[in-house]
Amino acid sequence: MIYTQLTVIGGGAAGMFAAATAAEAGLKVILLEKNARCGRKIALTGKGRCNLTNTKPWEEFATHIHPKNVFLKNAFYAMSNIKVMEFFERIGLPLTVERGDRVFPQSMRAQDVTDALLAYLKNLGVKVITEAEVDSISKTEGDLEGTSLFSVVDKKGRSYASQSVIIATGGLSYPVTGSTGDGYRFAREFGHKVTGCFPSLTAVVPTSYSQQYHGISLKNVELTLFVNGDEVMSQFGDLDFTNGGIEGPIGFKISRKAVYNLINGQKVSVKLDLKPAVTLEQLAGRIKREIDQMAPALKSRLNTEGVKAISSILLPKLMPKALIAPFVAANNGITVATLPQKLKNWSFPISSYVGYERCVVTAGGVSLSEISQKTMESKFHKGLYFAGEVIDLDGDTGGYNLQIAFSTAALAAVSAAKAIL
Ligand SMILES: Cc1cc2nc3c(=O)[nH]c(=O)nc-3n(C[C@H](O)[C@H](O)[C@H](O)COP(=O)(O)OP(=O)(O)OC[C@H]3O[C@@H](n4cnc5c(N)ncnc54)[C@H](O)[C@@H]3O)c2cc1C
């Protein structure tokens, strides 16, 4: 049995940050990670560059947090995006801010984030134990002074006793990185509710989606989500058609509501506006001008050859070449007159989505109503804390999810230190 003041379970973003903050505050800390190394998911973040936070002020930042951003407010102020940036600069990781207020390491190497955290943990004397997959957590009854201890046992049968535990085991997304939902089991065993989890920031798959689409990227388009025919939300920006389905920045943004509604049996569709910067009339005017400037032979082909001529003469001026074939296949009966309407209202019924194996984040988790938002402590068990994706909190793309991990981790760690020291 190893005794310590705080055991942190999970060596991801939240776990490493919690261990560092707790050790800075003066606690003796053990960090247990089931993989052979910490931070496997961090290495994948931001396409290998790690978008570690976003500089937006709270009022704007909060609009990117779900399902209840007010829960994060105390944690955010305890360890704000600006404080996170100061922290990383202080431990030797220079940062840079890019388009959309997104923060990255200057080196553009996600691995540097983990390396900096691990080096700092070593300096602070945190005992990091890898290949330590926690199997169970239990709490002993308090002694005469009311002090109780947590007993954490790993799959190799080793046990760790501590006054506090922070569960930072992540969610269910990208299970190959070690996030397999163990924290939900631990939470349930302590009597906590886990709200329905589902994949978010993931590809949505249109009905009859074909290989023709794979690899096409669109800039400055608009995607509108419909549920049972009602417009739910619209997003403007960039979109990717991948082998998974529709994703990229605006695909991800609509995915949370799309997946939620698909799971609940609702009819989901999206409308793609390829020319959102102009009205239907302006687009019709632009197409007319293009035709007016054409040689007479081309004009007459447009009149006589129909879709074939539209595809070869007009569409190359209006969309990426690779998109022409799927656009024509999906939109029956295109004529010069109906083209503006089709370009602005390309509808895709959505039949499914890409699951946890490839989604960025898990929506749902340990219920917010049973965790104190002032401390991240369980409302049922003194000394038990939650941090990171295991909590029912998730963000949009743009550095919000890692900031959730850092803020909740720091607040849990400082709260544990206050209670113990
Ligand atoms: C491909 C991809 C790209 C992303 N890009 C970004 C981005 O650029 N910016 C951003 O803000 N967010 C991004 N995210 C989301 C972000 O990475 C996560 O929200 C964040 O890492 C969650 O941190 P966490 O520490 O709570 O959980 P995790 O990172 O999942 O860490 C949990 C850790 O706990 C360990 N563990 C689990 N069970 C046990 C157990 N029983 N015993 C011991 N250890 C255990 C796991 O092995 C893991 O190391 C991305 C996610 C993915 C999948």
Outline:
By secondary structure, the chain is an alpha+beta fold. 34% of the residues lie in helices and 26% in strands. The two termini are 22 Å apart.
Total of DSSP H or I helical runs spanning 4+ residues: 14
Number of strands: 20
By secondary-structure content and strand pairing, the structural class works out as alpha+beta
Count of discrete domains: 3
Q: Average pLDDT across residues? A: 96
Please give the CATH class of the largest domain.
Alpha Beta
* CATH evolutionary superfamily of the largest domain: FAD/NAD(P)-binding domain
Low-confidence stretches: none
Which geometry do the CA atoms define? elongated
Give the termini distance in whole angstroms: 22 Å
Let me know the largest β-sheet.
7 strands, mixed
Relative strand content: 25-35%
The distinct ligands, each listed once, are: flavin-adenine dinucleotide
CATH topology label of the largest domain: FAD/NAD(P)-binding domain
Quickly give the CATH architecture of the largest domain. 3-Layer(bba) Sandwich
Radius of gyration, in Å, reads: 25 Å
